[in-house]
Amino acid sequence: MVEASPPAAGSEALRLLEVVDLAHYAWLQVPMWVFDVEQMRVCWANAAGLAFWRADQLSALASRDFSDASPTTLLRLRASMQLHADGRRLQEAWTLYPMGQPLTSSLVSRGIRLADGRQAILFCSEPLAASYDADMLRGIEALQHTPVRVLLYPLDGGHAVMRNPAAVATFGLAEHPGAGPVHGLFADPDSASGLQTAVAQGQGYAGEARLLTLQGPRWHAVDARTVRDPVSGAPMLLLNAQDITDLKAARDTAETANRAKSSFLANMSHELRTPMNGVLGLTELVLSGTLDDRQRHFLQLAQQSAQSLMQVINDILDISKIEADRLALVLEAVPLRELLTRALAPLQVQAEKRALALGCHIAANLPERLMMDPQRWCQVLVNLVGNALKFTATGAITVQVDCRPDGEHSLLLDCSVHDTGIGMTPDELKIVFEPFTQADASITRRYGGTGLGLSIARRLVQLMDGQIDVQSRPGLGSCFRFVVPVTLPESLPLTR
Hints:
Elements: H1 11-16, E1 32-36, E2 41-45, H2 47-52, H3 58-62, H4 71-85, E3 90-96, E4 103-113, E5 119-127, H5 134-143, E6 149-154, E7 162-163, H6 165-171, H7 189-200, E8 205-213, E9 216-228, E10 235-243, H8 245-287, H9 293-323, E11 332-335, H10 336-353, E12 357-362, E13 369-372, H11 374-391, E14 396-405, E15 410-419, H12 426-431, H13 441-447, H14 453-463, E16 467-473, E17 477-487
Parallel strand pairs: 12-14
Antiparallel strand pairs: 1-2, 1-5, 3-4, 4-5, 6-7, 6-10, 8-9, 9-10, 11-13, 14-15, 15-17, 16-17
Helix pairs in contact: 8-9, 9-14, 10-11, 11-14
């Protein structure tokens, strides 16, 4: 057997360790090193230990300062020192960061005395990287490069045991509150409490919260869930945070501008309606007088144009009110059968002019009166029937109204409108409820309209806490259905 001397770079360190014979450890293939807990430095390592820490020589490794270790690591080191003082030898799983890269290892350690009498720890490492599957190794590597702040906490409380470089750059090192328990990361205690409650119940957490960073409180999109430590199996809290302060500011600015736009359109629509009502009224007055056929024809064309323009103004006014949150429901006890008769009467006239059949079937179990907003409910129904009339050349349009219980005093009012019109393709169905949208440009030219009607219908149904959907096939017609909750008159106030 050939005797090997320790490297020259380690000779000074070995003089400090003269009470411990480490010379025969120098060229073992197992990584070994001595850690001075008081100075937070490695003061000796064998060749395998230097390779483990990615150091060319001992002086380079000894110059590294480990004082920025997490509070949890410091507590573990101090606890190990106390156990080693009693002569105990430990085998524990540690996550180390040679050159900033995470590596989980099983460390066997025992206490030793330095030449000056201070206590240190001799570590012997057996890497456990082989226990990770390829996906986990790729995930650990990705954490080091992602801009998302990633932190890992013990589920039962305590300081972060892992922070990726992005988290360190944002929240700082151990002296900053962000490096403490997870609740210390949040500027708002209620947000921290909500996260901890959700995770404790086994649920994931996703939301926006202000986190305490080195630059002060900043908004972050936060995602948290429970994971298992791959070595110990202990439950851990994995928290991902992405800074959205600038995005949130831009979003708030855009929403403010959108509300201002909607408010402007609503005010302008009111201003336009006043003279249009005058035009319609005077046209109607003139038409009631004595006119020859040519004059009456021209005035009827003017009246139809004015009515079309008024419908466009009304659509813009409604969508603006909805977007500006200025549209409220007014609930009242409504005799639904009478309401349906009044709402469908003008549409019946239009259907007869186009030689179309318009039918209405009402379920026998429908209560005589219901608490609802009659104006907005009828607006949705009239919109859907009017839309069916527009796109149906031959055949029939059928309105079906039904209800089913939804509690002691609540019902679900189910209304559907079937037609035998042109129908829609699957791609057209995806955009049918979008504002200013029709199936294609040719429809606008052929049938007219702003493309706002169905968007308004959907918004109104949502305002009534209901749902709306459509089924359709090209050439076979469409069926629009909306369901809204209603109550019996005794159980609800008149407005909400």
